[in-house]
Write a structure and sequence with these properties.
Layout: E1 5-9, H1 14-25, E2 32-37, E3 45-48, E4 51-57, E5 68-71, H2 75-87, E6 91-94, H3 110-113, E7 123-125, H4 131-141, E8 147-156, H5 163-177, H6 208-221, E9 228-234, E10 241-249, H7 255-264, E11 268-270, H8 282-285, E12 291-298, E13 305-312, H9 316-332
Parallel strand pairs: 1-2, 1-5, 2-4, 5-6, 6-7, 8-9, 11-12
Antiparallel strand pairs: 3-4, 8-10, 10-13, 12-13
The chain binds adenosine-2'-5'-diphosphate.
Adenosine-2'-5'-diphosphate is lined by residues 10-14, 16, 37-38, 40-41, 58, 73-74, 77, 162-164.
Length: 341
């Protein structure tokens, strides 16, 4: 077929902007491009391949002449627009939490479960940006031994909460450094602070973000009973999510074996030489597509355990890069037309 005609819904947002960059960087075949956002952005233009493109208001009719839509806006937009696009024969790669756990929606990290793409019925989802790096590391390591349980603490950057949150971090930091007050508006103060709540609280005391990490990890790895406990924390870092992860295996796995498996896994890079102070850090990993792993060591508390540290750019591999890779799989597998689309 000819090059797919593409819509980016949420094109003015933190992930939408990076999606434009990544389509270009990866030379994704683009047969046409519609950029949509809220009514607030009508009148703006964005640049793609040197061409100025006007931002349109998001509406079902946009999908009439599109083959593929990347949606990264709000949950409400994803709920309505994914169905509108699907009804018009436009395949959706969605970045929200709305569709991920639906049984007929593949939830895909191509380096882990690319074959799941084939089962789609018009809507595919990419995982939460905190789950993706953890899943890639677990997928590498389970080749050494089945995993018994996982305990993770995440350190998630503000860009995961959108472009407005990045601006807030900037404003609050400047105000505090100038001797003023942070004046938080929509969220608790983030500058010089840590927020141990991302999303809403559930009855069991976990947040919605922590619950997503659990269920999405199980779905992508096809391990529906994997025990996993996550604590997700927002940190005053602009880009890159980090995680401290402790894994218990059925059999012992040495740090050397773990490093070899991680380094051999597509999409994962090992940066692990503590003696020369080499370990992944957000400032170094921002703008990169790999998931970086370091500080690999025997866990001193878990039997057959390993402890490790993971960093990945949440806007790229955590969102836009993964979404474009899923689209590449759709094209490669010629998985355009499915029953029910
Ligand atoms: P807009 O810039 O017009 O508000 P971020 O994750 O960085 O906050 O970006 C969210 C994206 O979702 C932006 O492109 C934003 O557009 C878009 N968006 C937010 N609300 C709506 C809406 N009701 N309809 C369509 N797009 C929306």
């Amino acid at each position: 077929m000819s090059d797919p005609r593409i819509a980016i819904v949420g094109a003015t947002g933190a992930v939408g902007g990076v999606t434009l960059d990544i389509l270009r960087e990866r030379a994704f075949p683009v047969g046409g491009l519609r950029l949509t956002a809220s009514a607030r952005s009508v009148g703006r233009t964005l640049t793609f391949a040197g061409e100025e493109i006007a931002v349109e208001e998001t509406a079902p009719a946009v999908f009439d002449d599109c083959d593929l839509a990347f949606i990264s806006a709000t949950d409400a937009v994803s709920r309505d627009m994914a169905l509108a696009a699907k009804e018009r024969g436009c395949v959706v790669v969605d970045d929200s939490g709305v569709w991920r756990m639906e049984p007929d929606v593949p939830l895909v990290i191509p380096e882990v479960n690319a074959a799941d793409v084939d089962a789609h019925r018009g809507i595919l989802a990419i995982p939460n940006c905190a789950a993706t790096p953890i899943v890639l590391a677990l997928d590498a390591l389970r080749r050494a031994s089945p995993i018994r349980r996982v305990i993770a603490a995440t350190y998630q950057s503000v860009s995961g909460a959108g472009a407005a949150a990045v601006a807030e971090l900037d404003e609050q930091s400047r105000a505090l450094l100038a001797g003023g007050e942070a004046r938080p508006e929509r969220r608790p103060q983030i500058a010089f602070n840590l927020l141990p709540r991302i999303g809403s609280f559930r009855d069991n005391g976990y947040t919605s973000e922590e619950t997503k990490v659990l269920h999405e990890t199980r779905k992508i790895l096809h391990e529906p009973n994997l025990p996993l406990s996550a604590t997700c924390v927002r940190v005053p870092v602009p880009v890159c999510h980090s995680a401290a992860v402790n894994i218990e295996f059925e059999r012992p796995v040495s740090p050397d074996e773990a490093r070899s498996l991680l380094a051999a896994h597509p999409g994962v890079a090992v940066v692990d030489d503590p003696e020369s102070d080499a370990y992944p850090m957000p400032a170094d990993c921002a703008g990169r597509d790999d998931v970086f792993v370091g500080r690999v060591r025997e866990d001193s508390a878990l039997p057959n355990g390993l402890a490790l540290w993971i960093v990945a750019d949440n806007l790229r591999k955590g969102a836009a890069t993964n979404a474009v890779q899923v689209a590449e799989e759709i094209v490669r597998r010629s998985a355009w037309l499915r029953a029910g689309v």
